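Recall the central idea of this unit: under ordinary conditions, the amino acid sequence of a chain determines the structure it adopts. In this exercise we apply that idea directly, starting from the sequence alone.
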Amino acid sequence: MLDKDNTIEVLGARVHNLKNIDISIPREKLVVITGLSGSGKSSLAFDTIYAEGQRRYVETFSAYARQFLGGLERPDVDKIDGLSPVIAIEQKTTSKSPRSTVGTITEIYDFLRLLYARGADAYSYNTGEKMVSYSDEQIKDLIIQDYNGKRINILAPVIKARKGHYAELFQQITKQGFLKVRVNGEVQDLTAGMKLDRYKTHDIEIVVDRMVIEDNPDNQKRLAESINTAMHHGENVLMILDQDSNEVRYFSRNLMCPSTGISYQNPEPNLFSFNSPKGACPHCNGLGTVHEINVKKIIPNPKLSIKSGGLAPLGEYKSSWIFKQLETIGEKFGFKITDPIEKIPEEAMTMILHGGKDKFTVSSKDLGVTRDYKIDFEGISNFIKNQYDESATTSIKRWAKDFMDEIPCPVCEGSRLKKEALFFRVNEKNITELCDMDISDLTAWFHDLNSHLTDKQLLIASEVVKEIKDRLNFLMNVGLNYLALSRSSKSLSGGEAQRIRLATQIGSQLVGVLYILDEPSIGLHQRDNEKLIHSLEQLRDIGNSVIVVEHDKDMIETADYVIDIGPKAGKYGGEIISIGTPAETLKSDTITAQYLNGKMKLEIPKERRKGNGKFLKLTGATGNNLKNVSIEIPLGKLICVTGVSGSGKSTLINETLYPILNAYYFNGVKKPQPYKKIEGLEHIDKVIDIDQSPIGRTPRSNPATYTEVFTEIRNLFTMTSESMIRGYKAGRFSFNVKGGRCETCEGSGVRTIEMNFLPDVYVECETCQGKRFNRETLEIRYKGKSISDVLDMTVDEAVPFFENIPKIYRKVKTIQDVGLGYITLGQQSTTLSGGEAQRIKLAGELSKKDTGNTFYILDEPTTGLHFEDIRVLMDVINKLVDKGNTILVIEHNMDVIKLADYIIDIGPEGGKGGGQLIAKGTPEEVAKNKKSYTAKFLKKELE
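Accordingly, the structure predicted from this sequence is:
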């Protein structure tokens, strides 16, 4: 029995599909909640325990602070006891900001900035020499030492390599009592009205003093005063000119190049921050990329004329000012807007794209009159660029972006930082070079660092370096050794983002906290699973409670306590069907237990498919870490691309192969990573990529709208007799347009409460009680159900309800076939897991008529799936392949890999140690490979 004092007691939980369950969860243990997808695992862990923890946290605020947060609704549960502070580590919470990187999320970059600001050596960007900085006293001593007995001029540089006549400057210098200046290396007397050639670049220094250096107190006093004056006018820089040899030396209070005299400000941490104006590259504002106009996107087809829509941003001819201007440009250059664009003279196209001003006259021979024309045209390229840079609305920015390419910033070459920041080095590396290393290399570099630092640097940096090493080790322990700190956080998969947050939490060393994790093993190769489990055990051992929602066999077997929720999904789930240690779970008769103890398993096919004998060949892929990889993909088979995390699978498939196919079949604009050639494109008809990105980011988006079944349902409602009498059209039943929707919540069924420093909270609309529509619309019924009732149906209920309407039936049946019978048609997309969103996309594609010659790419389709759900999914995938289609799956799950007809294994390691083709062939052939990590685990599955 569990000790009552050391448990979390949940009584009467009824959130979503939970059926009034009571449960005791042990504290300070690693607890796994498992069960079929949609059985209620997340409802218990996140929507009950975490939601109540968050609500209690907000309750601790003062009434003043709470008024800005609105009311957090209490989850539908009678009582929760023994709850400690809760931290949820989910998959959906990464920042989409282009400024967020792995380094900034983990805070390692903050420590690196501190290290560089306090312990780095500065070098000149002109000569590469080490920069020097002196105090006034040191400068005085150096001058006495190096120029004793010599005649010198003490100069204050005021202008360096800039154009202008500088008449006002000379006047000002004269007023301050100076008599001489040195202009372009020549000492001159200041005269009234003196000025220079304004179109040439000049160097100007004030001659502060001319003296012979002698070692006596008066001379030294005069020298000290002159140094002070020169520093004041030269902004902390002065020059010493040896009158005999005419040689110049620079001295500065700041960091300064001894040869050329350029100086840097003393470094502060924000000089190395690309999110601060002090450190960001001024050209790209610290983003590392800029948007450039792509003329091919403005003129996609030069055979078309301007009139028939050859200029994509303008579309077809309209009687508007802009087309009148184009006709005027035509008059000037002798073309008509009905001519194909490729026939228009080059200088005319330059004016159309980049603008120009002009006045000209045209005389008409027939009428004997002349007409004056005036052109004042901004240029289409300039207009698009200005709209992108200055427009306040996102839709216009998005429109402008369609005609632009994102390219690395030409000034900072993608480093995001100012030039000066890149010339501060520690052990011969600048901060960008460190951020571009993968974490395994960076860890090794830091371990070796102390031997390369001076005693002074060691004293300053030892604490910072210790913090950085600790955090890097935590990232290594959760299997992220292949990432680089400069990697943008929006390019991370859900599993990677979650493991980064896990590493950050382990780094914070909190005690007595309840951590709730959502499938942390996603996207992780079996090899790295042990590291992840060890990290979770570490969290538990320092005195935290860890609850993990997980399907992974290893994780379930190493847990202290397992809770199995079921028996089925959706409304048929929500009950606790087994609870206890892993050993006790194995003895129960649940579906999970049967898969764990081997009573049920995915059967290996008797023979592998032969395919259709045709191949798609990709040669010489070298993107990111790929080392000249060439692959042959046999068509008409189920193909699995495997390899440890970070080995280059996504680069090869999602960033090289898919953009090539997409550009070929659908004129996609995404540029593929570098490759030499591709053959065999003629053997397939189209490509479909189904990834895990959310199907919508607002509560308005749902499975019915995404699969377009809602359009058919709305059409059906307009055909009812009551609807025809009232004259309702399809728009009446849409919650996205005015008319039939509830105007209080604008058809979303919920009101969004913006939490200033917590994620947004959605509260049910009090006018329509979440029904989305107004009373009149809800009066229209089909088979006794209103449009809102239909959206609240589960897919399993909708299949028999619509079986006589083929268009609707086909689509809802496909959603049911991919194992999503438990979701409702109107469920908000924001509440779907990554795996569910991916299967809705799959259903959307499957419900379309397939050609039997389609190439499907699926990225980890088993995410969030229980063993039984994987079986259902594999049945759907196998049906598709049996029709002749090719399905390529990027996957770590051994149950899928063993069912493949052909495996391509990339590796052997992640990051720099990966990017090679290690093994290929049937699972049986790959299992014999000695170098492959996948082979080792596959062998066990095949036995």
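The mean pLDDT is 90.
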